[in-house]
């Protein structure tokens, strides 16, 4: 079996907080194959963005491993990590705050090349790359001397995409790249991401809370709840056969214009969200789960219940 392009093993990220340690990301194990997309879904505050930042070492991990092409990048020094960033990039959620308002679009897009290649890249080659990636991302060349505030949200997000793509990376973390955009612009950006993946063989980790979006773009899906992975499966398998009560609740809340689903069962969540600060062992969804039992208080991890389908729930034993 081929080595995954990206793999995490027992990845943890804890933050010091008043009263203890906040478990933002706990014991995450995932694999992303070359030319594939892993969708990461869950409600706000579940640790999706922290996970993406920890994988790229933008936020230092507390423990665990991040393997890129089989090598643990958490052990890299500064120079080795700088070289690794030629293959790993990120598209940030807010297309405005992630762009320096004092820099032109040309300088924003060319900045990764200046940082990673320095003076080894000639100006003519830099110009050619910037203009080529602008055209590829649907940005007219006339915007090269514009500033971010002069562009609308869709074009600003294309600038963020172009900036990530200009150094020809192999892997991109997309942190809710369409959540701040209108629906019509969302579709354009999603189709652009998929076209670029097909043309360049890219791998994505696509972070979102929109299940319709993740179904459209992903190959595999991981569902997170309060820093933990509760279910992991192929896209079609997850939507056809969800097993974890939290996943079922998420999928049942998807709006639909299909009249045949008018009487479909809604899985309503009740109860209080438990604290992520020094949480008790066991399932963190238990306080809101209608099927919770004493066994749920035990430490529980993802287990394979079908080919490629993993779930952390005592109901699936």
Question: In words, what does this structure look like?
Answer:
This is ATP-binding cassette domain-containing protein. 30% of the residues lie in helices and 23% in strands. It is an alpha/beta fold and 317 residues long. A hairpin with a 2-residue loop joins strand 11 (303-306) and strand 12. Helix 3 (105-117) packs across helix 4 (123-136) and helix 3 packs parallel to helix 5 (153-165). The radius of gyration is 21 Å and the shape is globular. The chain starts with 5 loop residues before the first strand and ends in a 6-residue tail after the last strand.
Beta-strand proportion: 15-25%
End-to-end separation: 27 Å
Based on CA atoms alone, the radius of gyration comes out at 21 Å
* Count of distinct strands: 12
- Main sheet summary: 8 strands, mixed
> Which class do the helix and strand fractions yield?
alpha/beta
Low-confidence stretches: none
User: Major sheet: order of its strands?
Assistant: 6-7-8-3-9-10-12-11
Helix proportion: 25-40%
General form: globular
Strand and helix order? EEEHEEHEHHHEHEHEEHHEE
**Whole-number average pLDDT?**
88
Number of helices: 9
Organism: Candidatus Pullichristensenella excrementigallinarum
Protein name: ATP-binding cassette domain-containing protein
Pfam families: ABC_tran (PF00005), oligo_HPY (PF08352)
Family: Belongs to the ABC transporter superfamily.
